[in-house]
Each structure stands twice: as structure tokens, then as C-alpha cells.
């Protein structure tokens, strides 16, 4: 065996942040469950589109019914639908793997010993979760637009809003992008809270269960009229605001308010994650 | 902060506090690679480590011995800054841990509590991920460093397979490779031979020897006494969270060495002859005659017995194995 070469005189005490972030994203995207999940998300708009075609314009009420003959509605409806449960679940899964999962595999220890500073580690993990949120939402939006145009039809570049007016294709795409960005914002809030829970436990399942349980409890609380005073504080209470993008003129109040609420959750969740990670034993 | 103001490392620790943790560790010669003072760790009502003072001398291979649950891993975790001591201080390459651990950790390789890797990634991919986090590797050096480490632990052929399918021994080898990604000044190996076949155990022994020759300090915990005896220059024996013995292996064994053991069918005649010649001789539990050191030298004693016509089967130096020492240290204490 050749003896180990002499250590070169180096001064770095931490690896470059860009390299760490790239490695984290690579790790997230190499994970088979991430890929399967993203594939399933791409199917959501397709399934809705097929359903609409099969129903053949016989219609129905609500967002899905309005999809008939209107490509604009499909991506927005798919995102709104997925936001109720599937997208938060995906984000919670990424957050669960990010810290609790790494602890369970013993890999978090390796990162801390490298060393990756604990603050950097939180940044790395948050980026990984954010990438999942962006990719999942983006996939639904893009596939939704394509499916809407191909299957349901573009109606000569004119899209009918729920208010009955028509808007151009560019305007419509802008609105879909707006809803996508808003959805990612909501997911960032879920992800921050999920990361905090992830930093608290070494069992990934606890993170999933907590987020799902939390969403259901929020839903129930939001449905009880006597507890109306809670509405401004429940993350889920603004989650129907995405459909506002289909109205004309575009009302931004709902999305703005829920974005502020999401920001609050993200700050609290992020702060908690940092506080927990700084003290965590590994 | 440090309760031992006469220690040379105090100056190092003090100056580090003022500097950003970027300069490579510049511990003065003779300062230990790792040390703990008054270290104590309590989990709930369990005292895992109780007031341990220990130096790991630079350049040594220190074997940490102890029965299961004696606090070896907890002590190692405190040294590496993975867990905060309830009381006491720890230092790594002259830097206080965990507060300035970032300055020392790039030069420290560790395999603690078994190998930790992702099952869905190949061994090579896992190692690459570990390498991206190593501060001392530039992006361009990573692939070569990964291959070298794989080769060093004999895992090159299996590197492309998923970690999920690795045997226990291969997992352990990969863990070892991660600790060796960068030339280290201190390598901490917690039970490195767990699950390894005899060839793997030999490889670990070879790697430890290589590290030692290269000037690195090695801290290895094990319950395989033969391994420690074969590879270590120093030992520390833990029992129920306390340090019951520490020091150079040869000295510890020597301190326990006394006399010459003579196996003879003629016990009474032998004792009479020896005592008559001024030697301290007594019977040990196995019916052999033991001649204590300090009297006539061994060749003279043997010649004496032969001249006196005492029949002898064997005469040898009494030299306890580490195993006996360990058994005495860890079984007698409550």
C-alpha cells in the first residue's frame, strides 16, 4: 500500500455552499420515491383532462365542471386540488427524509462531522424541500396547461374566465404562473413546519403523520362556525384562493392574505428548525 | 473554562477563541490529539460517562476498551462534538469542542456507531456525497479521492452496487472509506471490525498501521482485545462510565508482569532450593512455582534448579495478556 500523501496546506473549514446545495438537490432527485412522486403529480392534470373528455361536456358543478371547453381552468383546478392534500404530503415527505430520515440512516452524523455547519445544514435541507415543492407544483402547472390545450382545446387562443369574460393566451399563462407561485409559497410554509418536526424526531413517519394530522385538524377547525375567530390563523383557510385567478378582474386579496399567513408559518417553522438543529445531538 | 491552567493547550484554545475558525489547527508539539477533562454525560437518570480525564497523545494508536454500555461511544461522541457533555470540557486537535469543532473536524475522520449511508445509492455515489461535504477537498479532487478511498478498503469492485445489497462487512468497509477520504490527523474508529471477516479484520489492522506510520493519531474502540493488543500503542479501559486504566500498552502490561513461572513435578524441592538461594518463590493457583523478580536473574535460577536435580517441564516469564488485565480491571470493580 502506498502511504497516504501529505495533507496539503488548506485553510477551508467548510465546503463551498454551492457544492453542498447541488449535492443536496442531486440527492433529492436521485431518490426513487421523489421521482415516482413527481411522475404521479404529472398524471393529476392528465387524469382530470381525461375525465372531462369522457364526461364530454355534460358538465357538473365546481372547478372541475368548469374545465369543460376551457384550457385555462385545468392547471388551476389541478393545483388547487393537489394543494388540499397531495402537495403538502409530498413536501412533508421530502422534509421527513431531509432530517429525520438522514438521522435514521446515520448520515446526518456524517454531514455534521465533515463538518457542515448546523446553520448551513438547515439551509441545505430547506433548499432540498423547496426544490421538491417547486418541481411538483411546476409539473402540475406545465402538464396542466399542455393537457388543457391539447385535450380540452384552446378555443382559438381565447380563454373564458369564471366571470364570463375572455382573456388571451399570454394573460392566461401569466395567471397559471401566478397560481403556481402562490402554491409554492403555501408549500414553503408546510415545508418549514415539517422540517421543524423533522428536526425534533428521528422517525420520518412522525413527520408525515404530524403534517397530515395537522392539515385535517386545521380543516375541521376551519369548518366549525363557532371557531370563526381562528380563521385568520389557520394555514389551510386560504387555500381556495387559487381559484381567484380564474375571475376577471383578478382579485388578489385572497392570495395576498394567505401568502402573508404562509410567510408567518414559514418564519416560525424556519426559526424552530434552526433552534432545534443547533442543539440536536447526532 | 479549562480547569488545568498548566496545560499547554490552554494557550491554543484561548487564541482560537479570538480567531475565526479558518486557520488549520496549530497545536504545539506534544499537545494531545484529543483530550477530555472532567467529562460527564447524563441521559435522564443514567450516567453514561462519569468524570473522565483522558488524553489521546498525538501520534499514538489508542485502543478504548470496555464492556458494552461502558460509555465508549458516548465519550467518542462528546469528543467529536456530536453531543454536549453535561459537565467538563473536550478538545480536538487543540480546539475546544463543540464550540470550535469546525476548526478541527476537517482533519478528523470518524466511523461512529456503525456506517451511515443511503440504501438507494451505490457505494461510490454515497462516498461522493460524503466527499462533497469535506472542506479539504476541492470539487476537482473529489472523484480521485473517492476512488483512492474505495481502493484502500478493497471495495472498488463493489462500488457500483447499491448500498442496500451490501453485506455487513462491506458496509463497514465503506464507513471506513468515508473516514479516509482526506488525509487525516486524527482517525476515530468506533468498533471498526464489527461484522468483518478475518480478511477484513486484517485490512483494518493494516489501515491502522498505515495511519500510524503516516503520523496520524488513531482512536479505536473495540471489544476485541486481541485486535487492540496487536494494533495499539496506548489503551484506555472504561467500566460503567469511568476510566479504570489508561496509558501505554506496554507499560500497563509490564506493571503487571512479575517473575518467572516454573512448572515442575517436584514442587517442594524447587521451593526449598529457590528459597535457600535467596529468591522469593511461591506456589500459584495452578500448582506452578512463581519466582518473583528482584532475586537472582532467570538464567541463574534455572541453572540452580538443574544443579539441584529438580525436574522441570517448563520455565517462562509471567506475562499477562491484555485479556487478563482487562478481565481484572473490569470484573473486580463493582
TrEMBL record, chain A:
GO CC terms of this entry: plasma membrane
Keywords for the protein's UniProt record, in alphabetical order: Membrane, Transmembrane, Transmembrane helix
GO molecular function: ABC-type transporter activity
Stretches that traverse the bilayer: 35-55, 75-100, 128-152, 172-198, 205-227, 259-278
Top-level taxon in the UniProt lineage: Bacteria
Pfam families according to UniProt: ABC2_membrane_4
Name of the protein described by the UniProt record: Membrane protein
Source organism of the structure: Pseudonocardia asaccharolytica DSM 44247 = NBRC 16224
TrEMBL record, chain B:
Boundaries of every ABC transporter domain copy: 34-265
Pfam families for the chain: ABC_tran
Region (Disordered): 1-33
Matching SMART domains: AAA (SM00382)
Superkingdom assignment: Bacteria
MF annotations from Gene Ontology: ATP binding; ATP hydrolysis activity
UniProt keyword list: ATP-binding, Nucleotide-binding, Transport
Family recorded in the similarity comment: Belongs to the ABC transporter superfamily.
Cited PANTHER family: ABC TRANSPORTER, ATP-BINDING PROTEIN
Protein's recorded name: Multidrug ABC transporter ATP-binding protein
Organism of provenance: Pseudonocardia asaccharolytica DSM 44247 = NBRC 16224
Amino acid at each position: 500500500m502506498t502511504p497516504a500523501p501529505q495533507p496539503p496546506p488548506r485553510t477551508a473549514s467548510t465546503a463551498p455552499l454551492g457544492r453542498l446545495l447541488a449535492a443536496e438537490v442531486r440527492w433529492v432527485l436521485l431518490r426513487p420515491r421523489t421521482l415516482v412522486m413527481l411522475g404521479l403529480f404529472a398524471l393529476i392534470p392528465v387524469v382530470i383532462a381525461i375525465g372531462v373528455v369522457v364526461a364530454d361536456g355534460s358538465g357538473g358543478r365546481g372547478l372541475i365542471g368548469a374545465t369543460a371547453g376551457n384550457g385555462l381552468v385545468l392547471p388551476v383546478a389541478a393545483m388547487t386540488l393537489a394543494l388540499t392534500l397531495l402537495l403538502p404530503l409530498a413536501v412533508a415527505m421530502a422534509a421527513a427524509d431531509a432530517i429525520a430520515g438522514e438521522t435514521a440512516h446515520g448520515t446526518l452524523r456524517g454531514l455534521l462531522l465533515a463538518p457542515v455547519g448546523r446553520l448551513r445544514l438547515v439551509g441545505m435541507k430547506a433548499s432540498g424541500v423547496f426544490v421538491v415543492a417547486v418541481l411538483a407544483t411546476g409539473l402540475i402547472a406545465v402538464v396542466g396547461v399542455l393537457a388543457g390545450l391539447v385535450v380540452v382545446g384552446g378555443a382559438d387562443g381565447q380563454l373564458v374566465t369564471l366571470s364570463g369574460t375572455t382573456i388571451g393566451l399570454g394573460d392566461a399563462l401569466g395567471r397559471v404562473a401566478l397560481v403556481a407561485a402562490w402554491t409554492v409559497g403555501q408549500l414553503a410554509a408546510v415545508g418549514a413546519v415539517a422540517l421543524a418536526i423533522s428536526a425534533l424526531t428521528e422517525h420520518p413517519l412522525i413527520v408525515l403523520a404530524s403534517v397530515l394530522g395537522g392539515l385535517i385538524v386545521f380543516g375541521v377547525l376551519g369548518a366549525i362556525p363557532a371557531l370563526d375567530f381562528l380563521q385568520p390563523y389557520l394555514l389551510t383557510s386560504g387555500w381556495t384562493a387559487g381559484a381567484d385567478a380564474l375571475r376577471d378582474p383578478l382579485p388578489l386579496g385572497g392570495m395576498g392574505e394567505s401568502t402573508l399567513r404562509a410567510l408567518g408559518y414559514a418564519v416560525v417553522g424556519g426559526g424552530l428548525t434552526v433552534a432545534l438543529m443547533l442543539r440536536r445531538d447526532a | 473554562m479549562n480547569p488545568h491552567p498548566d496545560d499547554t493547550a490552554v494557550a491554543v484554545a484561548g487564541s482560537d477563541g479570538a480567531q475565526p475558525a479558518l486557520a488549520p489547527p496549530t497545536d504545539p508539539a506534544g499537545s494531545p490529539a484529543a483530550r477530555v477533562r472532567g467529562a460527564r454525560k447524563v441521559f435522564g437518570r443514567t450516567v453514561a460517562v462519569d468524570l473522565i480525564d483522558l488524553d489521546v497523545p498525538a501520534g499514538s494508536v489508542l485502543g478504548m476498551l470496555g464492556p458494552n454500555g461502558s460509555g465508549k461511544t458516548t465519550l467518542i461522541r462528546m469528543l467529536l462534538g456530536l453531543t454536549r457533555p453535561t459537565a467538563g470540557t473536550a478538545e480536538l486537535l487543540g480546539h475546544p469542542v463543540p464550540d470550535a469543532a469546525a476548526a478541527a473536524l476537517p482533519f478528523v475522520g470518524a466511523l461512529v456507531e456503525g456506517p451511515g449511508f443511503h440504501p438507494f445509492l451505490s457505494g461510490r455515489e454515497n462516498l461522493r456525497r460524503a466527499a462533497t461535504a469535506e472542506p479539504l477537498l476541492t470539487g476537482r479532487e473529489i472523484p480521485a479521492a473517492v476512488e483512492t478511498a474505495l481502493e484502500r478498503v478493497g471495495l472498488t469492485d463493489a462500488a457500483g452496487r447499491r448500498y442496500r445489497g451490501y453485506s455487513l462487512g462491506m458496509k463497514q468497509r465503506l464507513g471506513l472509506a468515508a473516514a479516509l477520504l482526506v488525509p487525516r490527523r486524527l482517525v476515530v474508529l468506533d468498533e471498526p471490525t464489527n461484522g468483518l471477516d478475518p480478511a477484513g479484520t486484517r485490512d483494518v489492522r493494516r489501515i491502522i498501521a498505515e495511519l500510524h506510520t503516516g503520523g496520524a493519531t488513531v482512536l479505536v474502540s473495540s471489544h476485541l482485545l486481541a485486535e487492540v493488543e496487536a494494533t495499539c500503542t496506548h489503551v484506555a479501559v472504561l467500566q460503567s462510565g469511568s476510566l479504570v486504566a489508561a496509558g501505554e500498552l506496554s507499560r500497563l502490561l509490564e506493571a503487571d508482569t512479575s517473575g518467572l513461572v516454573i512448572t515442575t513435578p517436584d514442587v517442594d524441592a524447587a521451593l526449598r532450593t529457590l528459597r535457600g538461594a535467596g529468591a522469593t518463590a511461591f506456589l500459584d493457583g495452578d500448582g506452578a512455582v512463581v519466582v518473583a523478580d528482584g532475586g537472582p536473574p532467570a538464567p541463574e535460577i534455572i541453572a540452580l534448579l538443574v544443579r539441584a536435580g529438580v525436574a522441570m517441564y517448563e520455565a517462562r516469564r509471567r506475562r499477562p495478556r491484555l485479556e487478563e488485565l482487562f478481565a481484572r480491571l473490569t470484573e473486580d470493580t463493582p
